[in-house]
Specification:
Strand content: 15-25%
CATH topology of one domain: Glutaredoxin
Strand order of the largest sheet: 2-1-5-4-3-6-7
Helix content: 40-55%
CATH class of one domain: Alpha Beta
Structural class: alpha/beta
Number of helices: 6
Order of helices and strands: HHEEEHEHEHEEH
Distance between the termini: 129 Å
Number of strands: 7
Length: about 220
Amino acid sequence: MRSVVHISLILLIGVGLGLAIRSFRAQTRTAGPGPNDVVYTNDPAQEMIEQPAENPEPTRPPEDEEWLSRFELTERSGKQVTSEQLLGQPYIVSFFFSTCPSICVKQNQKIKELQDIFAGQGVKFVAITVDPETDTPETLREYAARFGADQQQWLFLTGDLTYIRRIAGEIFQQHADKQVHSERFALVDSTGKIEGFYNWSEPKQFAKLQETIRSMLSNNQP
């Protein structure tokens, strides 16, 4: 009889231990996935919880990435041209590239018209390439000769593409990339402030551009 009781006690103790171990395992598993578990989640909140805390300090760009207010590029002559050197007279900024077969040719023909109209007067034309790898100073000299570009009045500039992108966007408010550019002229006054943007392919805007240039030139006279 006693042996039966002993066996029953042993069985009860065994069952109790088994239940206790199972409960302990269940509790430990709820704390997180095991080393061999695969977890799938598309919950952004869950992902944010698992990421380390963000730096409370605001992120500031390094000094060499601050917003541009001036520029310096290489002219077809090989000389450096700065935005400060252009102050004192109005000038027109355009973007182009020499291997463009159509739009750039028409665009520069329009600048040639302006050069003929305002020849020898105090206005400059600043053409900036968006393909500087191809448009070296030598290439730009050959390209400028096709339009009879006056070396003193019509400048052709090249430089680093990343820098040119920034000049276009941060100074002249135009999108530019490799062989990609706006078809608008930016007219800058004698103080370096952008007066406006003119679509050269629109006759009325092209006429208005000429009118504004004449007004600026007359105001610059002593």
